[in-house]
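Example 3.2
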Amino acid sequence: MVIDYYSDVLCVWAWISQRRIEELESQWGEQIHLKHQCVDVFGDTASKIDAGWRDRGGYEGFAEHVQASAARFEHVTLHPDLWVRVRPATSANAHLVLKAVEITESHTGMVSFAKRLRRAFFVEAMDIGQLSVVRDLATDFGLDAAALRSVLTSGRAMAVLMTDYRHADQKGIHGSPTWVMNEGRQTLFGNVGYRVLNANVEELLRHPEQEASWCS
């Protein structure tokens, strides 16, 4: 069963959900395939903060919100400098390199590097909005710098990223993280607990023939 998983690398809820995803894959193994795709939530961070947090403390208010959101989860660690001193301008550079990794390595490789990028930002307070920072992290991660450079400069990585963004827009997905199951018939968004995720997967795997609509 394929689960389309849309997330933005700068989204704290996607970082919080990391363990849930890993538990889900451990539980169901090869019976499920999480297809990780990028969605544009923090493409223009300054505009997002201005629109949503102008009257609520700006970046400082958003930083407090992020810390408070994560504080409820014992397994989540956040650096105190997030959004206070470290303010990535965009998630698009990180997404672009992730798509380059997907092309040159594999989908699995991209997922692994996405986790490394999230840790770099949320735990180590590195500005992954800067392309140079993401490239350095890719090199340290053991990825082929020349191969990545090739697909970045040729535009291939950008084309794949634009496809992710377009698919998200066509499906009406504007938040992170979002799980899309059952060929688009079922969507779960935001802070979805593991038990809810697992129950939905279990039901679809056990009774797939009952999930499709008879009306067409």
